[in-house]
């Protein structure tokens, strides 16, 4: 049992060492990829090129690339919001124009109906005036008033 316990500990130690070694290689590989993908800049170089400064530089450049990516995404989102706002404004203008046209069409329809009603009323009044002339021979229409009444009824609606 003791030998088995010792063997398990040794295997666990070997696994941890392999994991740490693998982790070290992966981290180093990532940092190297970041170094190659970033443009070289004289202003970012550090005079002391020891292992601490290169690790800090790599970390700093990595953080800068993350910040730039975030800024680019934010700018794209702002542009998308602007496009959406412009589209909403355009749709609102179209709806307002459609409402205005509908209101104008309603007004035209109402005025046509009113005009037709007035024409019918004028015809009916003329018919009633002629009927009254025939039934009352001594009415005011024979005294010269018929011309002025016909003029007023005709001039108002023509």
From TrEMBL:
<feature type="region of interest" description="Disordered">
    <location>
        <begin position="42"/>
        <end position="103"/>
    </location>
</feature>
<dbReference type="InterPro" id="IPR026185">
    <property type="entry name" value="EPSTI1"/>
</dbReference>
<feature type="compositionally biased region" description="Polar residues">
    <location>
        <begin position="42"/>
        <end position="65"/>
    </location>
</feature>
<feature type="compositionally biased region" description="Basic and acidic residues">
    <location>
        <begin position="69"/>
        <end position="103"/>
    </location>
</feature>
<protein>
    <submittedName>
        <fullName>Epithelial-stromal interaction protein 1</fullName>
    </submittedName>
</protein>
